[in-house]
Queue: 2 jobs
Job 1
Amino acid sequence: AQNKEQLEKKNAILVDGVILNGPIIDAKAGQQFIQEAFPIIMEEAIRKGTDVNEKVCEWQPPAQLKKILDLELRDVGENHQRLLQRCQDVIRYSVKTSHPRFYNQLYAGMDPYSLVARFVTEAVNPSVYTYEVSPVFVLMEEAVLKKMIEHVGWKEGDGIFSPGGSVSNMYAVNVARYKFCPDIKEKGLSGMPRLVMFTSEECHYSVKKAAAFLGIGTQNVYVVKADDRGKMIPEELEKQIEQAKKEGALPFLVSATAGTTVLGAFDPLDKVAGICERHGLWFHVDAAWGGSALMSRKHRHILQGIHRADSVAWNPHKMLMAGIQCCAFLVKGNTGLLKECHSACASYLFQQDKFYDVEYDIGDKSIQCSRRADAFKFWLMWKAIGTRGLEERVNRAFALARYLADEIKKREEFRLILEPEYASICFWYIPPSLRNMEEGPEFWQKLNKVAPIVKERMMKKGSMMVGYQPHRGKVNFFLQYVLASRLLMLCIDNVLEDFTTEYILL
Amino acid sequence: AQNKEQLEKKNAILVDGVILNGPIIDAKAGQQFIQEAFPIIMEEAIRKGTDVNEKVCEWQPPAQLKKILDLELRDVGENHQRLLQRCQDVIRYSVKTSHPRFYNQLYAGMDPYSLVARFVTEAVNPSVYTYEVSPVFVLMEEAVLKKMIEHVGWKEGDGIFSPGGSVSNMYAVNVARYKFCPDIKEKGLSGMPRLVMFTSEECHYSVKKAAAFLGIGTQNVYVVKADDRGKMIPEELEKQIEQAKKEGALPFLVSATAGTTVLGAFDPLDKVAGICERHGLWFHVDAAWGGSALMSRKHRHILQGIHRADSVAWNPHKMLMAGIQCCAFLVKGNTGLLKECHSACASYLFQQDKFYDVEYDIGDKSIQCSRRADAFKFWLMWKAIGTRGLEERVNRAFALARYLADEIKKREEFRLILEPEYASICFWYIPPSLRNMEEGPEFWQKLNKVAPIVKERMMKKGSMMVGYQPHRGKVNFFLQYVLASRLLMLCIDNVLEDFTTEYILL
């Protein structure tokens, strides 16, 4: 051994004070670490994380959690045992978003196929910009997009996976603007008349973020009134368009919503399409939440008219459970618009003298450079359960939502705010102390405080996580997003029970 | 069993034709599937994918690969065995980006700690917008950003992890613009005088993409000449600023590059900082590639002056091997600018009546809504190897780059294009048929064809992947990005040998 060491020292290549012999990472030890971590992930995150008998969260206030996690990064590293303990802690104190009692936002559930695809992706570490670096994932993205485009109802289309529905909405604004006036790409907006886009008051906040980010300005998002159910009122849209024209501004885009964030409402797409056609406006549908209803032959009619859209944002990571993030931005037709609009033709990536068809180097359609292989998890899940399996998830969510709404209506301690069109259930919980009170200012003031208190108690117990918010003059109400995975029927009673339990103290 | 079935039928809850009893996902079968997939990932992607004796890629042209992968998505799902085979195929035909002979782009290498963190993240499926949903990852992001800010040399700072360096550069443009004129967020750019930003001709293409996307326009990116080494010439920057002012335009931002994409050059940050200060311009440094040199006490001087920057983009997924994507956008000072600039105050996420300090709901700093926990993989890696371990990676890459450059200079079949400042090695391979040829038009025309041909042959053999490109009047040359993981010293000779082997046929 000593001889070997001496020999190595003799042959050592020393450059700038660094010995270059041998690898810098001990591959065997590294693989051992991964082997040891896997059972922890399996038990703590995957098994317990989806077990209804476990807590959905293990609440700690920030100051306390900082201490527990010992976040500071130091000069010297730690041993494997310590690191495995850290992984365990990370999982323990993380919210179990795949838990059947996580109703906090518009995603949930653990699909094992998509999860495996995500593990594969991390291990392969691809970047989906060129065919040479990501041959498999480039083709898969194409296959998945093709199928999504079919479900939208277009004969031809193009698209790209993006890091979130918000970014997809930004793509829509940029493509619409490019179509409206290609010169803006080079010349910018300064000196241009005011560009105006339209969306309803119930739209996702990312539409305004897009307007701010893309230099259009939030004031140039004309907000169209919605009806009581949260749907854009077409006549109001017409009025706003006329108004903008009167002001000398240039209308270029309408963003309708299919599945609004709070009420789960669907804008009347067919009517909006007609208006867009008449005025020559780009018709975008933000179907991040509602797009998955397209998978259901029974329910897809709530998106009636979506085939007339020019672009669609649709996030399979929500209702279909593909895992965060899985977000497609889709454009009608095979016009090359997406690439034209975003391309920069970087010569270090997109050389034109490659030995294969460079049409497969799709990265120049994107605003990103390195880009994750988000289509693959959806692809593997789709292969695993088939179109019919995806449809079943959607149908189940619709039915569960219906059932939950009906159960809520049956009980005096709850009040349903509106009949669900999709899978967002909005309701008040009325504690006994308020049940016989006159519905005057005091009642509403007190009711407004119920949801935050109930939520706090539930989180501190780890029994449930559910959203709440005030909305359009209504005081804080609960907002329960229903996905197929969430409401195991056996626990619907318990879920409602939880609200009831919490009230006692109110 | 039959009795049980009958009982279940009797108790079945049927809504809209859907039986709601029981879960929709068979958790046990799903966990079994994950268990079975793990050894495949371990062996095929992790072990073989980093083994120098395996191929770096298994080339198939698109049409052929489509057939092999059977990409079509069908109505009916597939069994586990078939799906596991699919995972195996996906890995087999994917490029092994962690292989020691993958030099194609600016990332590579497999860090086992970061990989485990990524597996944990996928299993936990967080979205980092609020503390209530992502308590652990919100705090980790804060801890990692704090440490990165320290390394930049700022006393105080803010930041956010973004889906790519390109998006980080967009953040920079938007924050700079907001600082310059906050009204633009609401009013947009129309009617404004022309805003102008500056960057060098060697900048990453995303700077222009950002200008296009944000409505500034690519023509309003004034391109500053670089010297022979690829560094921005400060005097030329001054000239361009004066020119823009003379034209009545409004200069607002300079984007310098620390580690250019092709030559790996570092702009003279100190001098650029001085110019920005004199003219009151936002000083952004795109250090996506070069930022990691800040980890090295020995080499950080090549970023001399970066502490004077107003913002920095830095991707630990490149040199430090954190895995795609891990990209921080950093802003100097604790001014709240990042949030002010991007916030939309969505009431369904960022309720102000929560029971904890809502300062920890960091999502409104972002242009995204759901957002991945990219900071965690960097955090766990940092915990594992310490600041000194990260420093070692950087020092090793510098030394390897030096060694490779020297080896290239020793050999008549290669010509080094310039002495590396960092870890990008640019060189020609001169085949024997050209070695004694006069360096006239014919020579250059022929040399231009060498790199694409050699690359094609290497990829078809699966022996190596390396970038090439023409650049600033130089015909196609090889571009080898050196990371600590890549050049096992034992194979440097073999690596160079590979070029030599391929030439024989030329």
Job 2
Amino acid sequence: MANLKDLAEHLGLSQATVSRALNGYSTVNAETRRKVQEAARLLNYRPNTSARRLATGRAGAFGLVLEQSDNLLNDPHFVDFLSGFTQELAAQDLDVVLTSAEGLATYRRYASTSKVDGFVISAPKVKDARVAALTEMAFPFVVHGQTEADAPYAFYDIANERAFLDATRLLLNLGHRRIALINGPADTMFARQRLDGFHKALAEKGLPPDPRLIHHATMSEDEGYALTRQLFAGSEAPTAILCSSTLQTLGLTRRLREEGLEMGRDVSVISHDDGLSSMKTENFSVPLTVTRAPIREAGQEIARMLVALGNGASVETQQKTAPVELIVRASTSAAPQE
Amino acid sequence: MANLKDLAEHLGLSQATVSRALNGYSTVNAETRRKVQEAARLLNYRPNTSARRLATGRAGAFGLVLEQSDNLLNDPHFVDFLSGFTQELAAQDLDVVLTSAEGLATYRRYASTSKVDGFVISAPKVKDARVAALTEMAFPFVVHGQTEADAPYAFYDIANERAFLDATRLLLNLGHRRIALINGPADTMFARQRLDGFHKALAEKGLPPDPRLIHHATMSEDEGYALTRQLFAGSEAPTAILCSSTLQTLGLTRRLREEGLEMGRDVSVISHDDGLSSMKTENFSVPLTVTRAPIREAGQEIARMLVALGNGASVETQQKTAPVELIVRASTSAAPQE
């Protein structure tokens, strides 16, 4: 296996010329490029990645920083996202660089040292400091979700507000009036969007929101369980619950069973469904009515957007809000007669 | 912000000398090293990662290739592994490079182009071709689990055989004789090890294994459900079930409920528990008896092993089999009287 030096010596050319020829630079004439490429084949030349990256100025990788404080990695949804993201990039010979950190320092360092060509910003806050910092550095990134920002930025979001508006309307049309919301963390944008949709639907019926029925929590089985217990502890228990993730709904299901309540008869439930491959909402004891948007597609689409930005696309052309399906199954029914 | 060229010009030294000084090479004398480092601070020098990596010959990253055929990424267990692995490396300023591929070509290419300094081999087969290939290339790797190999290799495994031996013994001591096993995929080493433990315990009581009670499947809720249905469809239903993952046990639980069977009374169940943060086995409707080994620790330990190999440790010093706890909760009880 030949390296760049071997190849340059064999051809009687400088290493710089050989490198440029291999990378298709037009400053090297076509005949030389052809000769170099033929020799590279004959001598079984393998480029050193670091050398090639130094020559092209590209890392050939996109970064994802796992924040230790948010529980992204406690979350099976994230696996499906990562699967779509990694496969889409791998098809173009591009890598995913993962690291784990707190705060902005890692983003700045990876950008300034060309470790990656761009970032995914996961689980954006309502006003996300990472977005402001990367915009100021003019470093490419795509937000998975949206945030409040002063300048346009690339993002892939799902229609969270619309989805929870439609889901709440369905429950209202079934006659429910005491509807609870088990939402994502209060500081995330998607939770804000879902709360807005929920409020809008209530407002359409002239119903004021009841703060005792609205809760924010992480996407875990435990939290779904604990909040459902809390909801049924008081005298004003809900007749319907909207839940922001399949895992929370799993805990909710456990608690309803302990309360002796049957989902779809005593309590109506609508869950958000990220299309998880490991746990299907149609397979719950009572098949779930869901707002559904496969998170795997978000991973694929964000990969494509990052590549597009790298190829010079403007951020304004890389903004997408995907629709969310409302799928009605057995966990929703008419409100019990009082 | 100064680059290497700026710094070299400022100091009147060659770029090679400055680079070596910054990377602490002893071929540059101490006084020059000191001068270079001081100037780097003053001029706010940021190394280009590709350049530094070219100089040191290290990628500063370890690779994990997601095989498209095995469903590693359908698996929430993998998230906890990745979390431990990434955080441990990040603490040492090392990255994780993820890609997705089939077969050995990617391993060869990443190794030969120095994209990474070593690999994790996940979900090894009974005789794993990746291990043979990387051993032949003398490229560093740590296997998460074990495989049949001709030469020693670095690995981190858990005591799968012992765990399932102990679990089966517990069920036998409770008087169970028709014990089913819902195992991992038949071609994986961990499933083979668990089957061996199961067989040994039966043999100790002089019981022949019943092939109708032994099944191999992927680690999903669906499979746990389908196999449990199958187990109770015939006339020779089991009184106890060993299950290889929390997700399979989730499906098993769903099916037992549909069968009108109560776990811990009508049917005893022991599940393997990877210590998932998103779904806890003590929170199942009937708290589960489990064989427990947190997969997050595997991620951390394998990260440390890869770093050690990179620093020259021999593979023989990087071999570890972690113990597995048997935790008895409410899902196991004495076999029903016939």
